[in-house]
């Protein structure tokens, strides 16, 4: 399994060129590149920048793009808004192909006051049904992340995957988001085991919320929180997972220090895991 970092962790504090230097110095294979507007202190806009130039900068660093960090929301009250979100996912598939990358991290959607609750899941399913064929044709996998207020639920994620029914829609498993949401540690670890067979990408992250209350959650470096990351890696290995392990650091330390500390922990796990 290749190791990398989630570029978003560095986006607020470094330029893109600075990030590439840091990532190269860490000795990792690559990174997840964010697609939100004005990433890396305004020095990268993946949806509008010249991709040839971006690709050249990445190539000179010796790093790979392990995944595209997509931002989409299929819970929309207006059809034109939904269509724009679908087109965004298709555009991200094109970008993935341009970078020789096979994974686009995607979201499902977030609650909306103007959209009835009983329509949220159906909208997410319909959104993926509409664009997954494009991903199939492109040879790209869409990885639905357990993220936010709707899809931080393994049962719901599996329902979405099974209803869409495409091998090109899988899961981006974020190891700590379930804990952020407020699930018990027992539930978190059970979810990680259940989702491992569906994984096409992984955010390796740690945190702590001893009270089980979202507001008390604290992001940490790997090994300093409550998540049994080693167990999850063993589950991935047992499933024949061939994707990347991208460290995501969201703590209060300098992102480089937190990521490097996390990488040392991850490498120890990989060296000793079954």
Structure, explained:
The chain has 274 residues and is α/β, with parallel strands linked by helices. The protein has a domain at 175-274. Helices cover 44% and strands 17% of the residues. It is built from 10 helices and 10 strands. The chain has helices at residues 16-26, 39-42, 51-61, 79-98, 120-138, 154-164, 177-181, 185-195, 229-238, 255-272; strands spanning 2-6, 30-34, 64-69, 103-106, 141-145, 169-174, 199-204, 206-208, 218-220, 244-247. Strands 1-2-3-4-5-6-7-10 form an 8-stranded parallel barrel, surrounded by 4 helices. Strand 1, helix 1 (16-26) and strand 2 form a beta-alpha-beta unit. The longest helix is centred in the N-terminal third of the chain and has 20 residues, at 79-98. It is globular and about 45 Å long. The two termini are 14 Å apart. The model has no long low-confidence stretch (mean pLDDT 97).
Order of helices and strands: EHEHHEHEHEHEHHEEEHEH
Beta-strand percentage range:
15-25%
> What radius of gyration results from the CA coordinates?
18 Å
Q: Termini, distance in Å?
A: 14 Å
Q: Which structural class do the helices and strands define?
A: alpha/beta
Strand order of the largest sheet: 1-2-3-4-5-6-7-10
Mean pLDDT over the full residue set = 97
Oligomer state of the chains in this structure: single chain
Characterize the main sheet: 8 strands, parallel, barrel
Specify the helix fraction band: 40-55%
Q: What is the total tally of β strands?
A: 10
Report low-confidence residues grouped into runs of 5 or more: none
| Apparent shape | globular
């Amino acid at each position: 399994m290749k190791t990398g970092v989630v570029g978003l962790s560095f986006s607020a504090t470094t330029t893109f060129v600075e990030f590439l230097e840091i990532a190269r110095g860490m000795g990792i294979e690559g990174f997840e590149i964010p697609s939100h507007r004005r990433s890396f202190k305004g020095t990268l806009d993946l949806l509008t920048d010249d991709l040839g130039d971006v690709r050249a900068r990445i190539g000179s660093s010796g790093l790979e793009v392990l995944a595209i960090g997509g931002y989409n929301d299929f819970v929309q009250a207006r059809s034109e808004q939904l269509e724009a979100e679908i087109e965004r996912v298709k555009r991200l598939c094109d970008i993935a192909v341009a970078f020789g990358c096979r994974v686009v991290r995607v979201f499902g959607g977030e609650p909306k006051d103007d959209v009835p609750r009983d329509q949220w899941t159906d909208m997410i399913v319909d959104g993926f049904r509409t664009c997954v064929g494009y991903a199939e044709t492109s040879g790209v996998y869409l990885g639905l992340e357990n993220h936010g207020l709707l899809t931080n639920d393994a049962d719901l994620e599996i329902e979405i995957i099974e209803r869409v029914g495409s091998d090109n829609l899988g899961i981006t498993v974020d190891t700590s988001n379930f804990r952020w949401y407020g699930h018990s540690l027992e539930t978190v670890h059970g979810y990680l085991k259940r989702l491992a067979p569906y994984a096409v990408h992984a955010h390796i992250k740690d945190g702590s919320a001893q009270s089980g209350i979202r507001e008390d959650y604290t992001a940490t470096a790997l090994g300093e929180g409550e998540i049994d990351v080693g167990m999850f890696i063993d589950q991935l290995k047992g499933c024949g997972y061939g994707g990347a392990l991208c460290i995501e650091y969201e703590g209060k330390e300098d992102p480089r220090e937190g990521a490097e500390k996390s990488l040392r922990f991850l490498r120890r796990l990989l060296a000793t895991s079954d």
